[in-house]
Amino acid sequence: MLPKKLQRYxxxxxxxxxxxxxxxxxxxxxxxxxxxxxxVVVLDSGSTDGTTEIARSLxxxxxxxxxxxGFGVQKNRALDAATSDWVLSxxxxxxxxxxxxxxxxxxxxxxxxxxxxxALPRLTQFCGVWIRHCGWTPDYVLRLFQRGEARFxxxxxxxxxxxxxxDTPVVRLKNPLLHYSYPTPEHYWRKLQRYxxxxxxxxxxxxxxxxxxxxxxxxxxxFVRSYVFQLGFLDGxxxxxxxxxxxxxxxxxxxxxYCLGRxxxx
Length: 266
Prior knowledge:
Helix content is 41%, strand content 23%. It is an alpha/beta fold. The strands form 2 sheets. Strands 1, 2, 3, 4, 5, 6, 7, 8, 11 and 12 form a 10-stranded mixed β-sheet that branches. Strands 9-10 form a two-stranded antiparallel ribbon. Helix 6 packs parallel to helix 8 (236-265).
Protein backbone atom coordinates (compact mmCIF):
# COMPACT_ATOMS: atom_id res chain seq x y z
CA MET A 1 0.00 0.00 0.00
CA LEU A 2 1.08 3.55 -0.60
CA PRO A 3 2.01 5.70 2.38
CA LYS A 4 -0.91 7.83 3.57
CA LYS A 5 0.82 11.06 2.60
CA LEU A 6 1.09 10.03 -1.04
CA GLN A 7 -2.43 8.61 -1.09
CA ARG A 8 -3.75 11.92 0.12
CA TYR A 9 -1.93 14.28 -2.22
CA UNK A 10 -1.28 12.25 -5.39
CA UNK A 11 -3.90 11.30 -7.93
CA UNK A 12 -1.61 8.79 -9.68
CA UNK A 13 -0.98 5.13 -8.89
CA UNK A 14 2.14 3.03 -9.36
CA UNK A 15 2.73 -0.56 -10.47
CA UNK A 16 6.04 -2.39 -10.13
CA UNK A 17 6.80 -5.10 -12.72
CA UNK A 18 9.42 -7.82 -12.12
CA UNK A 19 10.31 -10.92 -14.13
CA UNK A 20 11.78 -13.91 -12.31
CA UNK A 21 13.18 -17.40 -12.57
CA UNK A 22 14.66 -19.05 -9.49
CA UNK A 23 15.12 -15.77 -7.62
CA UNK A 24 14.22 -17.01 -4.13
CA UNK A 25 17.46 -15.51 -2.81
CA UNK A 26 16.52 -12.07 -4.17
CA UNK A 27 12.79 -11.63 -4.50
CA UNK A 28 11.89 -10.89 -0.86
CA UNK A 29 14.38 -8.02 -0.58
CA UNK A 30 13.35 -6.67 -3.98
CA UNK A 31 9.63 -6.63 -3.19
CA UNK A 32 10.14 -5.35 0.34
CA UNK A 33 11.86 -2.30 -1.14
CA UNK A 34 8.73 -1.31 -3.13
CA UNK A 35 6.02 -1.56 -0.49
CA UNK A 36 4.99 1.98 -1.44
CA UNK A 37 3.55 0.75 -4.78
CA UNK A 38 -0.16 0.16 -5.40
CA UNK A 39 0.46 -3.01 -7.37
CA VAL A 40 3.38 -5.42 -7.71
CA VAL A 41 3.36 -7.74 -10.72
CA VAL A 42 5.71 -10.74 -10.85
CA LEU A 43 5.91 -12.73 -14.08
CA ASP A 44 7.75 -15.99 -13.50
CA SER A 45 9.15 -18.27 -16.18
CA GLY A 46 9.12 -21.55 -14.30
CA SER A 47 10.89 -21.23 -10.96
CA THR A 48 11.49 -24.38 -8.92
CA ASP A 49 12.98 -22.76 -5.81
CA GLY A 50 9.95 -21.18 -4.15
CA THR A 51 10.21 -17.78 -5.85
CA THR A 52 6.50 -17.59 -6.66
CA GLU A 53 5.42 -18.63 -3.17
CA ILE A 54 7.59 -15.95 -1.59
CA ALA A 55 6.28 -13.31 -3.99
CA ARG A 56 2.66 -14.22 -3.31
CA SER A 57 3.25 -14.14 0.44
CA LEU A 58 4.44 -10.53 0.06
CA UNK A 59 1.29 -9.50 -1.79
CA UNK A 60 2.52 -9.65 -5.39
CA UNK A 61 0.23 -10.63 -8.24
CA UNK A 62 2.07 -13.64 -9.66
CA UNK A 63 1.58 -15.23 -13.06
CA UNK A 64 3.66 -17.81 -14.92
CA UNK A 65 4.77 -17.76 -18.54
CA UNK A 66 7.23 -20.52 -19.38
CA UNK A 67 7.27 -19.71 -23.09
CA UNK A 68 10.64 -17.96 -22.86
CA UNK A 69 11.37 -15.79 -25.91
CA GLY A 70 13.98 -13.54 -24.35
CA PHE A 71 14.22 -10.80 -21.74
CA GLY A 72 12.58 -8.16 -23.89
CA VAL A 73 9.47 -10.18 -24.68
CA GLN A 74 9.12 -11.34 -21.08
CA LYS A 75 9.42 -7.83 -19.67
CA ASN A 76 6.77 -6.58 -22.08
CA ARG A 77 4.45 -9.33 -20.89
CA ALA A 78 4.98 -8.12 -17.34
CA LEU A 79 4.21 -4.54 -18.41
CA ASP A 80 0.95 -5.75 -19.93
CA ALA A 81 -0.17 -7.03 -16.52
CA ALA A 82 0.32 -3.63 -14.86
CA THR A 83 -2.85 -1.61 -14.30
CA SER A 84 -1.68 1.56 -12.52
CA ASP A 85 -1.06 4.98 -14.05
CA TRP A 86 2.71 4.59 -13.80
CA VAL A 87 5.04 1.59 -14.07
CA LEU A 88 8.42 0.95 -12.47
CA SER A 89 10.26 -1.95 -14.11
CA UNK A 90 12.74 -3.73 -11.83
CA UNK A 91 14.99 -6.77 -11.93
CA UNK A 92 14.85 -9.16 -8.99
CA UNK A 93 18.42 -8.30 -7.96
CA UNK A 94 17.64 -4.57 -7.66
CA UNK A 95 16.53 -2.62 -4.59
CA UNK A 96 14.81 0.73 -4.25
CA UNK A 97 16.34 2.59 -1.30
CA UNK A 98 14.08 4.59 1.05
CA UNK A 99 15.63 7.78 -0.35
CA UNK A 100 14.86 6.75 -3.92
CA UNK A 101 11.34 5.75 -2.91
CA UNK A 102 10.69 9.19 -1.46
CA UNK A 103 12.14 10.84 -4.57
CA UNK A 104 9.85 8.77 -6.81
CA UNK A 105 6.83 9.60 -4.66
CA UNK A 106 7.64 13.29 -4.73
CA UNK A 107 7.95 13.38 -8.52
CA UNK A 108 4.75 11.42 -9.13
CA UNK A 109 2.86 13.73 -6.77
CA UNK A 110 3.92 16.77 -8.80
CA UNK A 111 3.32 15.63 -12.40
CA UNK A 112 1.95 18.40 -14.61
CA UNK A 113 2.01 19.02 -18.33
CA UNK A 114 3.57 16.39 -20.57
CA UNK A 115 4.53 13.45 -18.33
CA UNK A 116 8.26 12.65 -18.43
CA UNK A 117 9.95 9.30 -18.06
CA UNK A 118 12.51 8.82 -15.31
CA ALA A 119 16.03 7.38 -15.48
CA LEU A 120 17.38 5.91 -12.24
CA PRO A 121 21.11 6.01 -11.42
CA ARG A 122 22.06 2.39 -10.76
CA LEU A 123 24.91 1.44 -8.42
CA THR A 124 26.18 -2.12 -8.85
CA GLN A 125 27.84 -4.32 -6.26
CA PHE A 126 30.48 -6.85 -7.31
CA CYS A 127 31.53 -9.51 -4.79
CA GLY A 128 30.50 -7.29 -1.88
CA VAL A 129 32.12 -4.08 -3.20
CA TRP A 130 30.27 -1.13 -4.72
CA ILE A 131 31.88 -0.36 -8.08
CA ARG A 132 32.00 3.40 -8.70
CA HIS A 133 34.00 3.48 -11.94
CA CYS A 134 34.80 0.95 -14.70
CA GLY A 135 31.96 2.35 -16.79
CA TRP A 136 29.45 1.01 -14.27
CA THR A 137 28.79 4.33 -12.56
CA PRO A 138 26.92 6.43 -13.35
CA ASP A 139 24.64 3.87 -14.99
CA TYR A 140 21.32 5.58 -15.72
CA VAL A 141 18.57 3.09 -16.55
CA LEU A 142 15.21 4.21 -17.94
CA ARG A 143 12.69 2.38 -15.75
CA LEU A 144 9.85 4.66 -14.57
CA PHE A 145 7.23 5.80 -17.06
CA GLN A 146 3.54 6.36 -17.65
CA ARG A 147 1.78 3.08 -18.45
CA GLY A 148 1.39 2.50 -22.16
CA GLU A 149 4.09 5.01 -23.09
CA ALA A 150 7.07 2.64 -23.33
CA ARG A 151 8.01 -0.88 -24.46
CA PHE A 152 11.14 -2.98 -24.25
CA UNK A 153 12.95 -3.99 -27.42
CA UNK A 154 12.26 -7.65 -28.12
CA UNK A 155 15.88 -8.76 -27.74
CA UNK A 156 17.00 -12.03 -26.20
CA UNK A 157 19.44 -10.11 -23.97
CA UNK A 158 20.46 -6.50 -23.39
CA UNK A 159 16.90 -5.32 -24.00
CA UNK A 160 16.30 -1.58 -23.84
CA UNK A 161 13.26 0.42 -22.84
CA UNK A 162 12.08 2.71 -25.61
CA UNK A 163 9.55 5.50 -25.30
CA UNK A 164 6.69 5.34 -27.78
CA UNK A 165 6.78 9.12 -28.21
CA UNK A 166 10.23 10.30 -29.24
CA ASP A 167 9.69 13.73 -27.68
CA THR A 168 9.04 12.37 -24.16
CA PRO A 169 11.34 14.26 -21.76
CA VAL A 170 13.56 12.13 -19.53
CA VAL A 171 14.30 13.24 -15.97
CA ARG A 172 17.33 11.83 -14.16
CA LEU A 173 16.71 11.01 -10.52
CA LYS A 174 19.41 11.57 -7.90
CA ASN A 175 19.22 8.65 -5.47
CA PRO A 176 20.66 5.31 -6.65
CA LEU A 177 18.92 2.07 -7.45
CA LEU A 178 21.01 -0.64 -5.79
CA HIS A 179 22.02 -3.56 -7.99
CA TYR A 180 23.18 -6.78 -6.32
CA SER A 181 23.97 -8.52 -9.58
CA TYR A 182 27.23 -10.34 -8.85
CA PRO A 183 27.53 -11.57 -5.24
CA THR A 184 30.23 -14.09 -6.26
CA PRO A 185 32.47 -14.65 -9.30
CA GLU A 186 30.38 -17.76 -10.04
CA HIS A 187 27.30 -15.59 -10.57
CA TYR A 188 29.24 -13.48 -13.05
CA TRP A 189 30.50 -16.47 -15.05
CA ARG A 190 27.01 -17.99 -15.23
CA LYS A 191 25.52 -14.75 -16.55
CA LEU A 192 28.43 -14.25 -18.93
CA GLN A 193 27.94 -17.68 -20.48
CA ARG A 194 24.18 -17.28 -20.90
CA TYR A 195 24.34 -13.72 -22.22
CA UNK A 196 27.21 -14.47 -24.61
CA UNK A 197 25.36 -17.41 -26.12
CA UNK A 198 22.08 -15.52 -26.48
CA UNK A 199 23.83 -12.43 -27.87
CA UNK A 200 25.70 -14.51 -30.43
CA UNK A 201 22.58 -16.40 -31.55
CA UNK A 202 20.72 -13.13 -31.93
CA UNK A 203 23.47 -11.50 -33.99
CA UNK A 204 23.98 -14.65 -36.09
CA UNK A 205 20.26 -14.71 -36.95
CA UNK A 206 20.64 -11.12 -38.20
CA UNK A 207 23.38 -12.18 -40.57
CA UNK A 208 26.35 -10.91 -38.57
CA UNK A 209 29.63 -12.82 -38.43
CA UNK A 210 32.88 -12.40 -36.50
CA UNK A 211 36.54 -13.29 -36.81
CA UNK A 212 38.87 -14.38 -34.03
CA UNK A 213 40.75 -11.11 -34.55
CA UNK A 214 37.52 -9.16 -33.92
CA UNK A 215 37.00 -11.12 -30.71
CA UNK A 216 40.55 -10.45 -29.50
CA UNK A 217 40.42 -6.75 -30.36
CA UNK A 218 37.05 -6.37 -28.62
CA UNK A 219 38.43 -7.88 -25.44
CA UNK A 220 41.53 -5.68 -25.46
CA UNK A 221 39.52 -2.55 -26.23
CA UNK A 222 37.04 -3.29 -23.45
CA PHE A 223 39.81 -3.59 -20.86
CA VAL A 224 41.62 -0.41 -21.88
CA ARG A 225 38.39 1.57 -22.02
CA SER A 226 37.09 0.46 -18.63
CA TYR A 227 40.38 0.34 -16.71
CA VAL A 228 42.08 3.45 -18.11
CA PHE A 229 39.57 5.82 -19.68
CA GLN A 230 36.68 4.96 -17.32
CA LEU A 231 39.01 5.03 -14.30
CA GLY A 232 38.56 1.42 -13.22
CA PHE A 233 41.96 1.55 -11.52
CA LEU A 234 40.40 3.81 -8.87
CA ASP A 235 38.33 0.84 -7.68
CA GLY A 236 41.50 -0.99 -6.67
CA UNK A 237 41.85 -4.75 -6.93
CA UNK A 238 38.15 -5.29 -7.47
CA UNK A 239 38.17 -2.69 -10.22
CA UNK A 240 40.95 -4.61 -11.97
CA UNK A 241 38.88 -7.79 -11.64
CA UNK A 242 35.78 -6.12 -13.06
CA UNK A 243 37.68 -4.68 -16.03
CA UNK A 244 39.34 -8.02 -16.73
CA UNK A 245 36.00 -9.79 -16.65
CA UNK A 246 34.48 -7.16 -18.93
CA UNK A 247 37.30 -7.87 -21.36
CA UNK A 248 36.53 -11.58 -21.16
CA UNK A 249 32.85 -10.81 -21.72
CA UNK A 250 33.60 -8.77 -24.84
CA UNK A 251 35.90 -11.49 -26.17
CA UNK A 252 33.45 -14.25 -25.24
CA UNK A 253 30.42 -12.96 -27.10
CA UNK A 254 32.34 -12.43 -30.34
CA UNK A 255 34.05 -15.79 -29.93
CA UNK A 256 30.61 -17.41 -29.59
CA UNK A 257 29.56 -15.64 -32.80
CA TYR A 258 32.78 -16.79 -34.50
CA CYS A 259 32.11 -20.40 -33.49
CA LEU A 260 28.52 -20.24 -34.73
CA GLY A 261 29.79 -19.09 -38.10
CA ARG A 262 32.34 -21.90 -38.31
CA UNK A 263 29.71 -24.46 -37.34
CA UNK A 264 26.94 -23.43 -39.69
CA UNK A 265 28.65 -21.68 -42.60
CA UNK A 266 31.36 -24.23 -43.35
